[in-house]
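As a warm-up, study this chain.
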Amino acid sequence: MALTLDTRQRAMLQEMGITVWLPKSAVPTTAPAVVSLPAAVQREAVAATAVQAMPAPVQTTPAQPAVEVPVTATTAAPAAPATRPAAPSAPATPAAATAPEAAAFVEWRMSPAVQAYPQATGGSADNAWLVIWECANPATPLQGDTGKLLNNMLRALRLHHSPHVWIASVQRPGQEDVPVASLPAAPVDWQPLASCLLSSVQQTRPARVLVLGMHTARAVLGSQEALGRLRAQVHQIHRIPAVVSYDPAYLLRSPHAKPAAWADLCRAHALHPPPAV
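Now compare it with the structure written out below.
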């Protein structure tokens, strides 16, 4: 593209402070006057060029202290950290329970049978009773609210005249002894259920066994049936007939079940003693 400027146009550009560089072919025979920019414009152009040429500022962080790293001839694995002091040992735990004590918390336990009416003088040894239930205080089974209710049930059958009424307490796995309020706590000789049940039957020689409560009946009989089905049958415990009924604690919460419990006691009372072997 050819750019041809006459003398008037070049003069106008010169007044505007614009320098025009023309190709050599377009340069006239007479050298044109060199058009220069005003000094203020030149200074601003130089400053702008200098700013563009400056490198971008670099953000620096405070110098970190030099760390001397020993150099070895061969590449070695990082040195193991200094041995830390041993952690304080855990506080000593109490001595582990013996095998019988540990087993007592994972299975049902039973206490030896005690006489319900030791001062009585009547009754017959051939018509003895063995009552098994979860008693809060095995040493005095007829104390407390539940014990008093059981006492009333036995007295209704006139069993308080016989010293041959025995009561044995059972305890669920993992359950702790909680004595009846206002009664002195007595140590209990808890034993495994199976062995203690056999020894209690051999000691008391009952004519019938009365088992109170669904959980107690399931543990003693080794059954998982509902309480209604357990109550409807006559069971055998070491060849001794057994009847299942409600737990006295349940009867205190559900008085409507007392007539059924009385029927269970009458059925147990009607059982004939097993024949002598």
